[in-house]
Specification:
The complex is a heterodimer of chains A (about 350) and B (about 575). Chain A is of the alpha/beta class and about 350 residues long. In chain A, about 60% of the residues lie in helices and about 10% in strands. In chain A, the strands form two sheets. In chain A, strands 1-6-2-5-4-3 form a six-stranded parallel sheet, sandwiched between helices. Chain A is elongated, with a radius of gyration of 26 Å. Chain A starts with a strand and ends in a 5-residue tail after the last helix. The chains are: A alpha/beta (about 350), B alpha/beta (about 575).
Chain lengths: ~350, ~575
Amino acid sequence: MASTMIKVDALNKQIKQHQAGSLYLVLGTEDHLINQVVSAFHGVLRPEERSMNFAQYDLTNDSLGSAIDDASSVPFFGDHRLVFLTRPFFAMSENIKATVEQDVSILERYLKKPTPSTILVIFAHTHKLDGRKKIAKLLMKHAQVVDVQKIEARQVESTLDNYLSQHGFQINAEARTLLLQRSDGDFSNIIDNLEKLFITASDKQITLPMVEDLVAPTLENNIFDLVDYVLHKNVTQALELYHDLLLNKEEPIKINSILLTQFRLLMQVKILTKKGLTQGDLTQVLKVHPYRIKLALQTARHFSMKDLKRAFLGLEENDYKMKSAQIDKQLLFELFMLKFADPVKQ
Amino acid sequence: MSYQALYRVWRPQRFADIVGQEMITRTLKNAIVTGQTSHAYLFAGPRGTGKTSAAKIFAKAINCPNQKDGEPCNECAICKAITAGTLNDVIEIDAASNNGVEEIRNIRDKAKYAPTEATYKIYIIDEVHMLSTGAFNALLKTLEEPPANVVFILATTEPYKIPATIISRTQRFDFKRITPQDSYQRMAYILKEKGIDFDQEALKMVAKASEGGMRDALSILDQVLSFSDNKLTMTNVLDVTGDLSQTQIDTLMGTIQANDTAQALTQLHQILADGKDEQRLLEDLIDYCRNLLVYQQAPQVIAETELTNVSDGFKKLSQTFPAARLYRMIDILDDVQQQLRFTNHPDIYLEVLMIKLSAAQNSTESKVHLDSTTAAEPAAAAPDAMVSKLEDQVKALSQQVQQLSKGTSSKPKRQNRATTSTPHKVKVNKAAIYPILDSATRQALNRFKEVWPDLMNMLSITKRAVMNVSRPVAANEHGVIVAFDYQLFFERVMNDQDLLDELKAGLNKLLGDPPEIVLVPHEDWPVIRKEYLQTDRLKSANGQSGAPAAENEAEKVPKGTKKALELFGKDIVEVHED
């Protein structure tokens, strides 16, 4: 139903050749691409025009009426008027809290008959508009859709390599892996982190210590590592990581319960694969994100049911103790780890 | 002039002074030198790691006209004004007390005006996680369209409380906690500058007590210095931190280990007479037990966190205390710790505790000292104490029997080889073999034998060549013992973690469960098995443990065959069943 779906490159070309249309819908959640789109549109205006011919409205806060009024007026001392509308909650399926009620018919009317000298850009930070709504259908029909969807996992790596070579930087394999891991494979995160790394690496070489120190691991990363250390019976690293987490004021009960869910998933995956379920089946049966299932499958393969069970039961007991006894919560985890890794007790 | 606390006097004034955050300071310096500064920064990290200091230095460096390599000069009017906190263009806000929308709106409005004296207007918002939701939204607006020449630096100890929308608009730096080594060096430097003598061990103690925060370290140091005249000693430090001294606790644990109740009580009274806090004493004891446990498994951790050289008493105790007993002690200590909350007579509980810790173990402690692996046999809960005692005795006896049999063996040649082969660089892991033998079954072994050729086919040619001289000789559900024809290959594979992982993964694919793989050289295998059988026979003689089924299901075979197997080993004797 979309009239046209264009990529960021194509948009850049349009603007450079002064062929910008008057209605755009920027659809997707890849922040890095959105930033490119924003700067591309700003290229339409001369810097001195900016203060007069540019306006941005957050539709959860500002009234749609005044935004469209603005879009309907002619530019001052220039060829174009640039109006950004963000968070069009009324066309999205996500439940976004808005402080104002919007009269959508105003936008409907405008869409049918836009002002030619104005470039109206609507930023929908979502994967897909709510197709059931009339306004969403109209938007898709009348506006040019700029595709800023998340870069898919399998493309992230090649995109990263391109980006690095464009900027003339080199990265070694370990640093690259860690960067991908700590950025959750999310391209916009990677770009944010690269900005810091570029500044640090004055000799254009990105090394492992730089990534270690400058790219902060997320809690999920940490928990993931922690599960790994526990299963590998790597006492030293497990305890160090645990101390770091506590210093970052993570709640021991929270850490414990995340560990528990992770082990539970590993066991479920292990048992069900034995029964012959595939990755796709698992996603459906367990109702868990496919990526987690994929990782769980990889991890579960390396460990025996016995170890998983032991770890799960140990953590379960810890959970009870943490909530009932007065014993130091940190100590509980340490004792669990030591008992678990004790070679004789297996 | 009134007294200024150490951490204020010695607040870092240059990036180079910030301890333990080299990569971050380097990035900030580079950013200033190359003019690639961001308009918003987020400094996250535990307290006392240099966030606010870095922010202030950044404010100076970016504005200092004499800036060199990203460092401020600290001499010019602007630098001095920022240090004194009098420059109008550098605004420090404590979000903990200014957390409302109004305050942030105020910032937003003022941020529009260009800086007056400096080139950049810097807003340092401390404890930014305390802002209310409304305030965050107001701040977000400013961060979305930042005015030129304004830099926001947000500092926080709890980054996860900050909305993702804010984080994604800032350049985030995570400050690491400061290692005891780093804070030790910094304090040593400060004390040297002040001309104060110090006892190295004492200073290490301070570094340790600070838990990764430089400000905490300096505060403790400040307190200690206040009642020590020009010399920092261990006693001063212990008085401030309230900890037991290393020797005190070493001896106390020593007496407990030796089951010397009387001595333990004397020790306790002495410690209490010194005015140590009861709760603190318990915490120290729990800590110590924990450290012993950790040391038994991961000595590096202790070396790193304790900073000091591990004391000899501690090392000795870590070898003599069985892990199971330490777990029990921690349980007891934990109980008492809770009882202490509800009593007016803590000393009574502590005395009873000492008796429990030292006397209760008398029955379970066997007189023979065992090496730590055998001593830590499963016996976690008290009812198992009896069993563990018996097991220990069995182990000890079996070791004696082994030695006896070695002496009288009719085959001195083989025995010699066995004894000479143990001191090899690569040792056979007996602790791993025995549990497998305990529950070994013929079925399990067959299972492994069946898939072995498939496994070999999964390996690369070079690896297959190495593994071709190997075959499984015993197995249970979860583990397999693999014998190698040649010592050389055995050693090579033992040291090749990659290959071991590959084997494990391969077996997992074939059997659906990654087994424990234990390697033995083939020539040692009969000896090991024989040793095991002897241990085992003793066990059954004592009425313990179910009958074992090693490789050849010992009890099912006729007596004569059994004897033959024992003497010659499975690989020489072929049993034909009719």
